Structure formats: structure tokens, C-alpha cells
Amino acid sequence: MQLIDGKKIAADIRAEIAREVEEMKTRGLKTPHLAAVLVGHDGASETYVAGKVKSCGEVGFKSTLIRYEDDVTEARLLQTVHDLNNDTDIDGFIVQLPLPAHISEQKVIEAIDPRKDVDGFHPVNLGRMVLGLPAFVSATPAGIIELIKRYNIPTSGKSCVVVGRSNIVGKPISILMSQKADPGDATVTLCHSRTRNLDEIIRSSDIIIAALGKPQFITAGMVKEGAVVIDVGITRVKSDQTKSGFKLLGDVKFDEVAPKCSYITPVPGGVGLMTVVSLLKNTLKAAKREIFP
Amino acid sequence: MQLIDGKKIAADIRAEIAREVEEMKTRGLKTPHLAAVLVGHDGASETYVAGKVKSCGEVGFKSTLIRYEDDVTEARLLQTVHDLNNDTDIDGFIVQLPLPAHISEQKVIEAIDPRKDVDGFHPVNLGRMVLGLPAFVSATPAGIIELIKRYNIPTSGKSCVVVGRSNIVGKPISILMSQKADPGDATVTLCHSRTRNLDEIIRSSDIIIAALGKPQFITAGMVKEGAVVIDVGITRVKSDQTKSGFKLLGDVKFDEVAPKCSYITPVPGGVGLMTVVSLLKNTLKAAKREIFP
To answer: Which of A57, B206, B232, B241 is most deeply packed, by most CB within 10 A?
Structure first.
């Protein structure tokens, strides 16, 4: 069994990006610049955005944080999106979700210029991805593909089950895994709450991508010998065994499943650590005009 | 075994649209108006476009046909797209594909205002469809969903195999069938040229959507008793049994497969007849501003 080390791969990618940024600066090119818009004071959002801003610094990007209180109007936020779209120094930007209930997230997302949509949430980027065109792919699916690529895990012709059909993970990763590409070319079955023989489908799959958000749902009996297991779930549960009083659990019962796998991602330390580097990679692509020339 | 009668359903929908257009006119509303752009003199394209224009007349739509010779420049065509985007009398328009090699189809498609993209080829519409948002869905997948709906074929929790991963049929119908919707909520496996145990997957499926373009590929031995079979393939082959000297074959060996099915679409007379009515439905939705208010 080989553990997929998200921490190591994320560090490798960070170092690669830092090297490339260094080189761009040497050649007199503009420093890649990511902006983040944060509304309100949600604890998780604060943490995520702080992590993104910090990571920018580590790879040599410029970053800008724009903050609003919870009561910002939708019109004001749309104006900010518009300004960022037109700011030639900003290569890409994100609006941290969730937004307060009085603001339409979809309207805000669709207002972002697809060329600066480094979160890959704009329908144009999703649509282009489905068509197999260059596109900003959202962080989690992009991170999964990157892990599979860096570990040279074969996917062509393999059976792959994706459990969970969320817009940000299940649907896009199911499309990417079945795409004519490497990684890709797998025979993908997308499962969800209405799926009847879920255990049987998982048990017959070479690659299992668990993104349903139910802690420790996938047990050893559901996994065939030699399977590749990618665990996207991250659920925070109370624990008296940690200082913080909680721990993070994946969708897979790691201790019993791992011995049966050829490859498995741990939680924490797996897919979750890839999301910020996916964002950095997208920002670098935006700065280099790789997606929309 | 119940034959899915594409001809009858298409006629029903045409009549429904005609009735609604009549009513719109009575209420003093503008007549829905579809424009089609045709480049060159490809025989099949000429036939398709003529069919679309004729159908517009039958349901009471206005239609405009814009023709160019094969040597039209990309810039000229993009200008026409731009003009149609800005023409307030035009509710929706299509640019008939394929285009000559010197013109980028993708560039032309992406130049179309998504609000007038009644072919549903713009990435925004595809992306919105994936996200479960209102969107113009392209003709063939929309036609399949319509047939399933009109025959009240249960799909929730059913296993569904889609054979073929084309951008215009396989990928979008796989997404629609697995979507949280009715029809939808099926457990979908998307198969393609790299799939290893295709026979076995098809044989275990409740619903089979064949869109691989290989005439008579699916035989009785590959279909389980009571399956629903949707045949998207239309291949023109030579025949000495018809006046025209050719006949149309589906991807399914109809004669031997049909007796095993609960429902099956014939070729011709099935899915193919739904494509023009899907376009008409999209044009009506565009005229009513149903997708993008």
C-alpha cells in the first residue's frame, strides 16, 4: 500500500511555482497577482482566505485582500467584481463563499470575467472543461487529478466510481476522469443518494473517489483488493483525544481500508492540502494567459 | 414491448408550440423569431437547415436564413454573429456546423450571446446545465429527456449506461440522467472506446443510451430483459432494398433487441425526429426569456 502524500506533493508544486515566479521576475515580467474578496467574519472562511493569502506570499505572488462586512449590498459586491475584472494588475481573483443570504452567489460568480475566474466556478470554465477545452478547473477536482498524475496511477480503462454528485467535486471529477486524457479515460460511474446497489458498485471499482461527506462511510468490506482510494471527505467531529477538542474524518474508514489499497489518500494530509496549490496554479496560468490567450 | 414513437411525440410538441405561439400573438406579443446561418453547400447541412426553417413556419415562428459561400471570412461570420446578438427581433439563432476549416467553430460558438444560443453549444449553457441551473440544452440530449418524460419511463435509482462520450450527446446526456431531477436521478456509467467490460456493463443496465455511431453494435445478448433502449445512432449505409439506394441504421440491432425491451426507440422514427422540436422549444424559451430572465 502506497500512501498518497498530499503534503509532499503540495510542497513540491509550491516550490515549482516559486521557481517559475522567480524566473518570471528575472525576465522582467509582472508578478502574478491574486485578489480575494471576503465578506463577513465566518471562522472557516477567515481561515481559508488567510491560508490563500499566506500561500501567495510563499510562492512570490502579490495578493490583495478586500473585506466587507456582512451587510454589504449585492450591488456593491458586483461593482467590486467589475472593478477587479478591469484592474489590469489583477491576474485572477476569488470571492470566498458562502456569501450572506441577501446576495446571489450565482450572480456574483457569473459576473466574474472567466479569464480571471481562478476558482473555476464560472459556467464558462465548467462548460469548457466538459468540452475538453483549456479551462480553469476548480480546486478539488484539479487537486485530485494532480495527485493521480504525480503518483503515475494508471486510469485508462479502469473502472472508477465517484460517490457524491456535488457541483464542486463529484460532477466535475466524474467528467475529468472519463475525459479522453491522461489521467482520464476511465469508465466512470457517478453515484449519489438515489443509487441502489452502492456497495456492489464500489466493490467492483478499480478507483474509488469518495466525496459524499459522510464520515467513515466506506469500510473495508466495500473495497476490493488493490483499489485506489481518493478520500475527499473532511468532516470535523468532536474528539477527546486531541488538544483542540475535535478531529477531521474522511469518508473512508482509513485504518481498515488502507491495507487493502494500492494507493490511498489520508485525511487530513491528502486531497485537502491540494486545494490551495490548485488555486495558485490557476493564478499562475491566468498570469501567463494560458487558458484564454 | 412499447415502441417509443418519436414521430408522434414530435408532432404533439409541434402542436403544443403552435398553440402557444397562436396565443402569444393573440395577446399581442412578438412572434418568436429564429435565424439560421448556413455557410457553403454541404448537402446534409442544406437539408437540416431547410428542415429547421420549414418547422419554424409550421409552428408560427418567423425565421431568417442567412447564407454565405464557403469562402466567407471568419471575421465576416463573427460580425454576423455580433449583429444577430444585437438584433432585438431575433430571439435565438444557430450557426449550422460544420464550418469550413479556415473558420474556428469554437470561436464562432463562443461569440454567440448565450441568451440566444438555442443550439445550447455555448460553454455557458453547458456549464449551467451541469450546475443544474436553467440552460439551453442541446437538441439531442433534450430530445432524449423529452421522450423519457412523455412515456413516463421511471429513471430514479435505475442503472443507466451511456455508450459514447461525444460533446454533443454522450457527455451531456450522462450529466442529465444523473442530475437530481425527473427524468434523472439515475446511476450513470459513461462508457467509451477505452472501456474494458462494455458488454457486461450494458447487460447489467436498466437503461441503455447508445450514442457511439457504430451501426447495429448492440445485440440481443448484450441487453437484459426489460431494459429501456434509447438509440441515438444514425448511420447511412448502402442498401439495394430502398429506392434511394441507402438506409439509416441505429447503433442497436433493433429486430433482435426490441423483443427484450420494455421500451425502445426505432431508427429512423425515434430520437432523430426530436432534434428539430428541441430547437423549436429552445427558441420559444428564448422568446419568453425563460432561461435568462
So the answer is: B232
